[in-house]
Design goal:
alpha+beta, two-stranded parallel ribbon, 14% strand
């Protein structure tokens, strides 16, 4: 039988605050990323992959 793994992949980009429509700080974005990874672990996902994104900052 083939075993499947289920997980999430993200680049961890700077997120937009749903309430204000403004970009979150890098610190806020990282905290959200850690919270998402923690939740993925609690839910039993097999993996939580974080890619590396190269771009110029403002």
């Amino acid at each position: 039988m083939t075993k499947y793994e289920f997980g999430l992949n993200t680049f961890g980009d700077v997120a937009i605050d749903d309430k204000t429509g403004e970009s979150m700080t890098y610190g806020q974005s990282l905290r959200h990323l850690v919270e998402e990874a923690h939740l993925a672990d609690e839910l039993g996902l097999d993996l939580f992959a974080l890619g590396e994104h190269h771009r110029e900052t403002e």
